[in-house]
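Quick question about two entries, pasted in order.
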Amino acid sequence: IPLGQRQLTTYEVSTTGVFVEGDDLHFVNNAAMQQMWDDIRRTIIVGLDLAHQTLQKRLGKEVTPETINEYLHVLNHAMPGAAVVQEHMVETHPALTEDCYVKVFTGDDEMADDLEPQFVLNVDKLFPAKMAVQLKAAVGKSLWQAVHIPTTVSRTCDGGTTSRWSAMQIGMSFIGAYKMCAGEAAVADLAFAAKHAGVIQMADILPARRARGPNEPGGIKFGHFCDMIQSDRKYPNDPVRASLEIVAAGTMLFDQIWLGSYMSGGVGFTQYATAAYTDNILDDYTQYGVDYIKKHHGGIGKAKATQEVVNDI
């Protein structure tokens, strides 16, 4: 039996007009697929409110926009793996960790205006006006850090490392920025806040028989995944495109990388997943479905919630 296979037909990446070889859609050959998963796995959201309360109540420190800016300066130096406070400590090479950064977000416009723009995720600029209002109302006056550790760290280790790497650098940055004593008891409270209390992981830890740490694909909730892709932010008036961008990313991560490689074992489910994001297969089908719903059921979100309607659609 000869090795290899016959020539495969090319695929069009849906909506793009770009044609590629089938091999280009295997995650091993595709840097964009790898980077998308890297960016999820290396991310963690950490609250600052509990840490600020600890600094104020336990240590009598003053927390102001100026001290927060100083802390964020220190943290963005430390998070890639650079030394603060400690002496005689090796450091990472900046060129290998330059994709690492931390920014903050809040629903409090006054607070956001007082912080250095380079450290702030501007919700008003990033989201359509209606979404921005909802997001800021939900976040309120809380202040959160969006931490992205170096890609090379989560690749070499795993998603579970993200919270540990982040917490260590956050703790050191508090000690440095607020001139704390490294051995005092309040440091333990700050460490707990950074590693556990105020932390939002991208994915939950899995049951032991499928054991991987947090921030690994099997533990991502689908609703959270939709928020990570944020296609409704980019295409707020095109529900078909917004949905199918999520489907494309989801089949790649959950089917090709997770189910195909880990759950099944092997070279991945590329051929199974490509139907979801090539040759406009789902695009035409989904658009037809939306048009049908508009014509017969009054539009998206307006259909009656009955089994008969579900069967009809």
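Here is the second entry:
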Amino acid sequence: MLRPIVVHRGRKRKGKGFSLAELKAAGLNKLKAKKLGIAIDKRRKTCLEENINMLKEFLKGRENV
């Protein structure tokens, strides 16, 4: 399962799901993300570049298969 990086109290840890802003920046919507098995966290508001790149790499790998 694909898990995002979350910054909490200055430390990085694995999060529960990607924020809606990160999904949008990677070119996904909620429905497509759920179909691909990507976890979504509605409570998160941040949009980290690291997570966007992770989603884009995941999508690139899915296109080749």
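Reply: The chain has a mean pLDDT of 94. The radius of gyration is 11 Å. Hope that helps.
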